[in-house]
Amino acid sequence: MTGPDVSPDAASARPRPVERFKPTSGQALGWFGLAFAALALVYVVWTVHTTTGVRIALGAVFFGTLIWVTQVRPRATAYPRHVVLKNAVRDHHVPLAAVDEVTIGQTLSLWVGDERYSCIGIGNSIRGDMKERRRRAVDEADVGRSRFSELRAKAERANLDERAMSYQTFVVTRLEELVETAKRELRELGHQPGTPRHTTAWPEVALLAVSGLAFVVSLFL
């Protein structure tokens, strides 16, 4: 039986995701980098049996792991009661019912009180930020204009809004829906939302540390 302060998801060993949010940038570059590192590793292991080959192999492992944690691994996954924000090596597990606000800038952010929990894999591009600034500029310039100017400004703003519809907007909207659903269900059950927790991607941390140290040592051989 689940206590009032325990997330309902904790009672299940493998809760099923209700939404997987794909990363918005770095995927193509990340997979290309991983493929290049893998090819380099296979090549030197197969053909270059020298100290230089060892250095290249260790460097390929280190930089391949670095590409994985910075470009491919970061993403967000929503479950019935919580959302997991994966970052390079530190992940946030945030109860949906505890979220006060969902925002997106350079990164996706979930606010619980004054605390912010971010995912570096999802965010607006520089171009998206420029569109947002243009939209705000149109709104500000709308004040004090003639009726004709106001209509023209509204048409321009509508055009900007239409072009600004993006995957990032969907992520925020979907998360807000899940937050509202989770809050309503917990109110009906009389449970507390729980508190966010953190986990560390220890396999990635260990691989980075070991391969990086081994690569540096190999330079002195």
UniProtKB/TrEMBL annotation:
Annotated source species: Nocardioides iriomotensis
Protein name: PH domain-containing protein
Alphabetized UniProt keyword annotations: Membrane, Transmembrane, Transmembrane helix
Residues spanning the membrane: 28-46, 52-69
